[in-house]
Amino acid sequence: xxxxxxxxxxxxxxxxxxxxxxxxxxxxxxxxxxxxxxxxxxxxxxxxxxxxxxxxxxxxxxxxxxxxxxxxxxxxxxxxxxxxxxxxxxxxxxxxxxxxxxxxxxxxxxxxxxxxxxxxxxxxxxxxxxxxxxxxxxxxxxxxxxxxxxxxxxxxxxxxxxxxxxxxxxxxxxxxxxxxxxxxxxxxxxxxxxxxxxxxxxxxxxxxxxxxxxxxxxxxxxxxxxxxxxxxxxxxxxxxxxxxxxxxxxxxxxxxxxxxxxxxxxxxxxxxxxxxxxxxxxxxxxxxxxxxxxxxxxxxxxxxxxxxxxxxxxxxxxxxxxxxxxxxxxxxxxxxxxxxxxxxxxxxxxxxxxxxxxxxxxxxxxxxxxxxxxxxxxxxxxxxxxxxx
Length: 389
Hints:
Elements (H helix, E strand, L loop, with lengths): L1 H14 L5 E2 L2 E2 L1 H13 L2 H5 L4 H4 L3 H20 L5 H26 L16 H14 L4 E4 L7 H8 L6 E3 L3 H5 L8 E5 L1 H10 L2 E11 L5 E10 L3 H12 L3 E7 L2 E7 L2 E3 L14 E3 L5 E19 L4 E9 L7 E8 L6 E21 L9 E2 L1 E6 L5
Helix pairs in contact: 1-2, 1-5, 2-5, 7-8
């Protein structure tokens, strides 16, 4: 139908011009509305990302333009004594067959149009997972079922839809057990996605990994694993090694108030440490897994620091500052609990006096998270001057 759509588009442009009449009726405004809709409907997708729900309304002007193209072609053929009625019947039959063919393709082939079945794709598995979970709990009422929520949006809503309120199923990821020591015994049965299952095996933190059941994706690959497992005997040593690795500081350099400063900082997974000093309140940096976030600054010369301002977003953070005048001096430690908000993300700490500082260590601990955790920071501003309350 695309050629007819383009013919209809050309006709709409021609008839939308000022003074365009057809059988004595001013139709230009109607065609202008049709053309405007063609350009307005995609704006939502243009601002964010192409998606079927953002572009579905384009079906309406596309159908109108296609109809205009078909109607103009049949009118032209009719003037040349072509069998228009037969052409119309043939077109109806062709469109009907095409629609049923598309319906069949959607029902039979739709599940394999894409093989991305997780959060970023089809989000497949609601009825399949919760159907098996319900049957499993009925057969094994003493089992503590923990279902991963990472494969779909609103998994808690799906759970309430498919399961009765008295089915004690927990939504949770195995990642909590991978990152810290949590209660774990053989009464627990985890429902894992392929990525989570692979991460569990590769971590080396578990033994006696028993897969009791699997659920396939429509393409035949395994989509969900029902797993029981135990911690490895050396789990404490493994977690301690990971904690030490997370707390290793990286090195960098940045311009702070026009001076090149040596930096040591926690590993980041968003942004670079230099962005904490770029004066742009929209650049974000986030720790990979460390809580607290540590940023240590070593200046080439002493500065008299009287306070500090931080852009932390809407978080409650314990700020601990270690201010050293030299490598040999005992640092002055200042600690304060601050809270940012969406309306006021910038927080400040004024010192009782200006301290001579050559090395400044900033520790930001999000009190509402444990470790590992993600600590966010947008900006650090150092205040130089006399200081005071």
